[in-house]
Amino acid sequence: MKLCTLFFGLLLANLPVLAQPGAPPPHEESEKVKALRTAYITQKLNLTVAESEKFWPIYNEFQQNVNAQHRRRFDAMRKVQDEQETLTDAQFEELVKQSMDAEEKIAALRKTYHERFRKVLSAKKVALMYAAEVDFQRKVIQQIHKRAERGRP
User: What is the Cα 20 distance to its own chain's centre?
Assistant: First the structure.
């Protein structure tokens, strides 16, 4: 319990970085948030040293590939928002296709990397990893909402 309290205290302290003007899009995590995610998942999965050595290079590669697709989708939708007055229907259609293509690639990456995760972790630990990712994201969003309610970035 103390570890979770410390973890989310550190997370809360680092949230202003994510809300700064000119900050990277939400899909581009800061190194601090990546480190917090790593610690959180490691703790939730109770990874051994041997498991960590095999798992984290695969997971980091997975995150890098997924983040590239999130960037593609984000960039397409940003263009839709920013240039809506000047884009043609054909350009809108192309941007939507780019966004949908990125989503399909993310789904394909999840399937591919699931198999790779299963080669180094048990089914239980892989399932716990997926649950830990969702829980981590939920807690980050909760912290952002709490800060917004208090009027802080």
Answer: 18
In sequence order, which residues have a C-beta less than 8 Å from that of residue 40 and are 6 or more positions away?
7, 132, 135, 136
What's the token pair of residue 22?
Answer: 């000119």
The pTM score is 0.75
* Per-residue model confidence as pLDDT tens digits over 40-96: 999 999 999 999 999 999 999 999 999 999 999 999 999 999 999 999 999 999 999
Does the pLDDT of residue 153 top 70, yes or no?
Answer: no
Burial 123-134 (b: 16+ CB within 10 A, else e): eebbebbeebbe
DSSP 29: -
| More reliable by pLDDT, 75 or 5 | 75
Euclidean distance between CA atoms 16 and 25, whole angstroms: 13
In terms of Cβ atoms closer than 10 Å to its own Cβ (0-12, 13-18, 19+), residue 102 is buried
Radius of gyration (C-alpha) of the chain in whole angstroms: 18
Give, to the nearest 10 degrees, the angle between helix 123-149 and helix 89-120: 130
For the chain, how many residues are written? 153
